[in-house]
Design brief:
The protein is of the alpha/beta class. The chain contains 12 helices and 9 strands. It is globular.
Length: 315
């Protein structure tokens, strides 16, 4: 339930995050903007995550720690952190990312000043496993997310140029609550951001106030490295918390379907719905969506061949 008692709720879902968790939480608690709560939801970690979180909760009353009895999957854990929130604004945080001390203050200022903006983030810097700044993602900037036209925002957010770092932006809780939140399917964060873009404008602060950590255990390293056969069944375990018995796992087909579901769910004029559908057609043709949907089938065929040959799938 959303109330006016707290300005910002930060949901931090985590599973086995002992290596980077302390630095991530420290960067949150060191924000110059103080009116927030930090909700940590531990997805039944097996390392020292519970100990680290309990110590933070004892030291700072803004920290609220919850632990699941079993792993419920990444998206469900993300969604639970939102359902436990009480703030006017909401932000998801990752256990391995780091915030500049002014990140929250700058984002809240933008949202307070412009009610038409539903989500505010900053440009993203890249740090390595040792917290050394090694680059940025400025080449992934989306120029139309602040447009007054829903189809232009939508077109940028379904684009393959979108790395979805804005899933960790500060959002208006009232609008986020109107979405289905994170779905239990591969790349559901892309669909969620696209739907938020249909609802309203987004703003990117032109400074690097958010730092994404690139390390060997990062999700993108595990599942999006080059020269691997993408075993979507293994990837789906992260999204659902359990192994799947599906005959086929076709993530890009699911993403496509959900784009159209969002277009019809969000209140839009018919001309805007048609223009958004045109953006999906552009994604299929110019963004190589059709090629990726073809890859889904090719991956499945190759994995089944490997399974028949080796007795198991290898990636």
């Amino acid at each position: 339930m959303i109330s006016d008692k707290i300005s910002v709720s930060i949901g931090l879902p985590v599973f086995n995050g002992e290596k980077y968790l302390k630095e991530a939480v420290d960067s949150i608690l060191s924000q110059s903007y103080r009116d927030f709560e930090l909700i940590i939801v531990d997805n039944a970690s097996k390392d020292k995550t519970q100990q680290i979180c309990s110590e933070f909760a004892k030291k700072d009353s803004r920290v609220k720690y919850y632990r699941n009895k079993e792993n419920i999957g990444g998206p469900a854990n993300y969604n639970l952190s939102f359902k436990l929130a009480s703030g006017k604004y909401f932000k998801w945080a990752a256990y391995d990312d780091v915030l500049h001390p002014e990140y929250l203050a700058r984002c809240v200022q933008i949202l307070d000043e412009d009610p038409s903006i539903v989500l505010c983030h900053s440009r993203v810097g890249c740090i390595d496993e040792n917290s050394v700044l090694v680059g940025n993602y400025d080449d992934r900037t989306l120029p139309r997310i602040g447009s007054l036209k829903a189809h232009e925002r939508f077109g940028d957010l379904i684009s393959l140029r979108n790395d979805c770092w804005a899933i960790h932006a500060v959002m208006r809780s009232s609008y986020l609550g109107k979405t289905p939140l994170h779905g239990s399917y591969v790349d559901a964060d892309r669909n969620l951001l696209a739907e938020m873009g249909l609802i309203g404008r987004m703003y990117e602060i032109p400074e690097h106030l958010f730092f994404r950590r690139d390390h060997p255990d990062a999700y993108t390293r595990k599942y999006y490295s080059k020269n691997i056969v993408r075993d979507y069944r293994t990837q789906l375990v992260w999204w659902t918390g359990r192994k799947t018995k599906r005959l086929l796992v076709l993530p890009h087909w699911k993403n496509l379907l959900e784009f159209f579901v969002s277009i019809n769910r969000v209140p839009l004029s018919w001309p805007e719905r048609l223009l958004c559908s045109r953006e999906v057609a552009r994604w299929l043709l110019k963004e190589k969506g059709l090629r990726r949907m073809k890859w889904d089938f090719e991956n499945e065929i190759q994995l089944w061949r490997m399974k028949l040959h080796y007795g198991t799938t290898k990636t």
